[in-house]
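Honest question from a wet-lab person: if I give you the sequences of every part of a complex, can you actually get the arrangement of the whole thing, not just the pieces? Trying it with mine:
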Amino acid sequence: MKRSARVILLVCLGCWPALWPLRAGEPGRVMVATEAGTRSIAPHAAAHRAGTFVPGELIVQFREGTDDGVVERTLRDAGGARARRAFRGQRYLVNVDPSLSLSRAMETLRARAEVDYVERNAVIRKAQASTFTPNDPRFPIQWNFKMIGAERMWAIQKGSPSVAVAVVDTGIAFEDYNDPVTGQVFRKAPDWSCRGAAGCNDTVFLQGHDFINNDDHANDDDQDSHGTHVASTIAESTNNAFSFTGLAFGCALMPVKVLDETGSGTVFSVANGIDYAANFSQNGTNPVKVINMSLGSPDSSTTIQRSVDAAFAKGIVIVAAAGNESKGSIDYPAALPNVIAVGALDARKQTAFYSNFGPQLSVVAPGGDCDRNDSGNAFGADCVWQQGMNPDEVALGHYDQFLSLGLAGTSQATPHVSALAALLISQGITDPSAVRAAIEQTAERLGGASPGGRNDTYGNGLIRPDAALAGLGFNQGPN
Amino acid sequence: MTLERAIVAVASFGLLSAIAAPARAQGLALDGQVGYYSLSSASKSANAVFGSAGGATYGGSLSYAFDSGFYLEGGARYFSKTGQRVFLASPSGPVFPLGFPLKMRLVPIFFNVGFRFGGRGPIVPYVAVGGSVTSFHEESTVAGITDSQDSTKGGGQVLAGLEFGKGHLRLAGEAGYAFVPNTVGIAGVSKVYGEKDLGGFSVVGKLILGFSSRR
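Yes, you can. This is the full assembly:
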């Protein structure tokens, strides 16, 4: 019974909308951007999409001082069946008789001298996005990469293909595959390849495993493209003049599917995923040096702790999300001693409203807030933007259409740290404790923490990849 | 070698030599010196960054010896090492070389007061103690950006040596111990190890040009 409770609570952090689809401002909200513009999608709640109008409703603003009798007569003449006055001023929400043309009613009202303006009553979501259509590479959108100094980081280290990050998640859109059993058609996301660009290497994928369907095709069928999005932050193909960039794009990825299409998994499946990654062997060695777990549960699990400890003992760095409940305790497995717990910042470099905090918090990284645009990015929302599947198509069972996808959460912060860990290992720091120390010691202290100190809100602070990678001189550094 | 041991060694050498009469004045002399210097007081940091603590040193000095056996000396030495930036999490942890080139340079300018023993014989033992001003420079380059650091610190040294010959050209062998406290240990590897002193043990050979031959 207790185990069942754990199973239920072990949900993908980025998939809250699947549980609370109408809760505006949840970190897991999905944003999509296409050549036609940017829009917000609430999975399983398509009726609430922005850009639509409430049928038959008009907002009519009368000029100041208009007599109430005149207002009533004007609205009735235009076909108004029912009207409601606004909280302040002479603004009315008018329901037009359904048998009449709405545009004709608007024309009639606009012709009246006492009417200031008329407009349709549009649906507004809190995350109403800009319609700006970027037609250049998406890196300028990635405010989160700028925040951690990615350009300087890449000058130092881009990652080695001999270092792999296992993404223990909902899978990755990493292959073209037609499932003979289910008939599902999966396609490889477009920005894993260089597309003919020079000075670029295709993203390398190691043989992963699907612990939900028990096969070797760990494809992503989550409506949020959660695993694909997380993996893209780590190693989306970069310098190919296409779409977005990934932080450790020279490193390899391993898709390990432990969460189903709703973003939920079990202790059993997650532990299986960790064990698989930790015991993988290729040419006599295990290239998996980092395990990213953008998932969590408020409950601890002996099974997962055993798997984590065993992986750590094999020299693997394990990074996990602190959780999105805005509470003073860190989710598991992030709270385990051998795991780097990652909290989230928004674009103001302040702790994100949803990010959990507590004594086990190691560092923070950009996790975003889709309700804000402090970065002023062209997509109009401070989500973490990467490639992903089209949520509308995924809802229909199609896994072959991709677009720019914005998510926010500690799930999105976590791969920043996993990527940094992979880069540090590529640079030569091969011990997991040393990798953690390099990340923590060089972090930018926030929230009033003294140099070398920490607090429970920001942990050791915001990761600084350039400082971590530069290491120490005789009497120099961290820089 | 610790500073205390060095002082004891030099003092013992002085006492043993005191049974001999002071050497006669040699007047003004110039020397060139080549030898080995070890960053003994920061050996862990040096081993981590450079792979070893010691290396070649060279320099020169100008001295003046009085009839009483005392002499004054002023000079400078040069010591440098090349290595790479590293990472280590704790003093007991492994060192991970990162491959970014690093250079360090020490230039101590020293002033000594010494005493020469040995009467009229061909071998003249001597001891000295003095102060120094040491210029420290560290420079490392990470992906095209060079980080450099310079500081100048005061210190001191004790030394003992043997001088051979009586003509204008003479040879000497000299061992010493220098201390340059509070120069490092502020950041980097030396902070992790808690090493603050760039001093250490040195052994040099000298070629001396005396402007008046020793009698």
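Two things worth pointing out. The beta strands of chain B are 27-38, 54-65, 70-87, 96-116, 123-142, 145-164, 169-179, 200-210. Residues 3-17 of chain B form the longest helix (15 residues).
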